[in-house]
Amino acid sequence: MIKRVFIGLIFLVLVTEGGTGLERAIFSEVVKKLSAVYGIEPGDLEVRIVRYPQIDKSLADLEWDVELGSGKARLGHNTLWLVFRCEGKRVVKKLPISVQVCGWFDVVVAEKDIRGGSVLNRRDLKVKRVKFSRGAVDFFRAADASCIAGNVAKRFIRAGEVLRPHMIKKRPLLKRGERVKVRIISNNVEIATYGKVKEDGYVGESVRVVCEPADRIFVGTVLDSLTVLVKLN
After folding, report:
1. Which long-range contacts (CB under 8 A, 24 or more apart) does 138-143 make?
2. 81 lies in the same domain as 137
3. Domain total of the chain
4. Is pTM, for the whole model, over 0.90?
């Protein structure tokens, strides 16, 4: 921890040393904006200004702000915008600022190898501090660990691998082949029967069900762990 903070302080000194007061202020605002976007403390970020814009002296007395570019912020190369406004409203000038960003994040990783299709529990997971230098910030954070437990691994996850949303799915309320009660509503008339679901089902989502005794297939909505509702036009 001390080493990381020490490097961060040295980094800031190298970037700002010799710069104008405006450049130092802009750099501080860049770090502030990026730390808010990534959801980490400014001290956990390493920001390098790749290209500072040429700022005309006529802009020096105007109000300015740093704005993020379009799209989702990623680690690595980013383009931000230095925006100058007159009286806080009219945009006078927008200048690009190219930056290189990496950061330290407390993320959820697999404590051990996890088989695809297995239900995750809290003992399968741990929180680890990892430095990322590029890519999307789409990994699970420390606060997500308890929410991940109870979900299902979509594929094999290696011990130490950082968990991301595409690796897991919700645990199904109904499993393929389970027998359920089927409520069929047609023209304000309701019929109750039973059937078997043809795929895993999640509450509030659609599922195909083979109804007894005619073995007809309908598409219905999962109401709970026992019931599928079919509405016919």
Report:
1. 138/164, 138/165, 139/105, 139/107, 139/108, 139/163, 139/164, 140/107, 140/108, 140/164, 140/165, 141/39, 141/105, 141/106, 141/107, 141/108, 142/106, 142/107, 142/108
2. no
3. 3
4. no
Burial class (CB in 10 A: 0-12, 13-18, 19+), 101: buried
Percent of the chain beyond pLDDT 90? 57
174: in domain: no
**pLDDT of 172 above 80:** yes
pLDDT greater than 60 at residue 109? yes
User: What tokens appear for 71 in the block?
Assistant: 């799209």
Question: CA-to-CA distance for 102 and 79, rounded, in angstroms?
Answer: 14
Strands 179-186 and 227-232: parallel
The pLDDT of 14-32, averaged and rounded, is: 73
Q: Please provide residue 142's backbone torsions phi and psi, each rounded to the nearest 5 degrees.
A: -55, -40
How far is the C-alpha of 232 from the C-alpha of 185, rounded, in Å?
6
d(CA 16, CA 57): 19
- Tell me the per-residue pLDDT of 116-170, one tens digit each, with 9 for 90 and over: 999 999 999 999 999 999 998 999 999 999 889 889 999 999 999 999 999 999 8
**Domain enclosing residue 219, as ranges:** 179-232
pLDDT tens digits for range 27-39: 999 999 999 999 9
What does the block give as tokens for 111? 């404590």
Same domain, 84 and 160: no
Residues facing 63 on adjacent strands: 85
* Cα angle value 166/169/171 (rounded, 5°): 170
